[in-house]
From TrEMBL:
GO terms for molecular function: calmodulin binding; metal ion binding. PANTHER family: BTB/POZ AND TAZ DOMAIN-CONTAINING PROTEIN 3-RELATED, BTB_POZ AND TAZ DOMAIN-CONTAINING PROTEIN 2. One of its GO terms (cellular component) is nucleus. InterPro entries: BT1/2/3/4/5, BTB/POZ_dom, SKP1/BTB/POZ_sf. This is BTB domain-containing protein. GO terms for biological process: regulation of DNA-templated transcription; response to hormone; response to hydrogen peroxide; response to salicylic acid. Pathway: Protein modification; protein ubiquitination. Pfam families: BTB. Residues 1-97 form the BTB domain. Keywords: Metal-binding. Gene3D superfamilies: 1.25.40.420, Potassium Channel Kv1.1, Chain A. SUPFAM superfamilies: POZ domain.
Length: 178
């Protein structure tokens, strides 16, 4: 269990605010007293602890431990930031993941970006895909995508094609009469 102040959690996340309000209301109605418990499911205890530390730190960067947390757990923290609606953490995680993209990691990062509605990360992934497509195409992740999710493969190829069409289109001159 990770002890935390409900006011800090509620001020950092509207989702946690709603959960805590309901839990505290139930505690009051029961007349037993006690504490509200929020379970953060789907991640390890280390990631949950990092998430709470980050909520306490707020959007302040530069503090060693929270910087390390984002670098170490960026993918899991992005999922939590999306689920609990913490926009500043979502952006921070997108930057961290985007800064270390490689042809071998870009497919998984793109899928994560799409699942978490992370447009900044999606754009960085698409730029790397456009630049390094031949290398990406040779990765196990791309082969897995091709074999198991042909619709997403088609969507990626369509986006790459559309971007290429925009990049290679000749500029159109517009003449205005005065």
């Amino acid at each position: 269990k990770i002890a935390a102040h409900s006011s800090v959690l509620a001020s950092a996340s509207p989702v946690l605010e709603t959960i805590l309000e309901r839990r505290l209301q139930r505690v009051k109605e029961s007349g037993k007293g006690g504490r509200a418990v929020v379970r953060i499911r789907g991640v390890t205890d280390d990631v949950a602890a990092a998430f709470v530390r980050l909520l306490y730190a707020g959007s302040r960067r530069g503090e060693g431990e929270v910087e390390e947390d984002v670098e170490k757990y960026a993918e899991q923290l992005l999922v939590l930031a999306h689920a609990y609606r913490v926009p500043w953490l979502k952006l921070w995680c997108q930057e961290a993941i985007g800064s270390r993209l490689t042809p071998g990691t870009v497919v998984d990062a793109l899928q994560l970006a799409d699942l978490c509605d992370a447009p900044q990360l999606h754009l960085r992934c698409m730029r790397l895909l456009a630049k390094e497509f031949r290398a990406v195409e040779r990765t196990e992740a791309w082969r897995f995508l091709r074999d198991n999710d042909p619709w997403q493969e088609l969507d990626v190829l369509r986006q790459l094609h559309d971007a290429d069409m925009v990049r290679t289109a000749r500029p159109v001159e517009v003449l205005a009469k005065y």
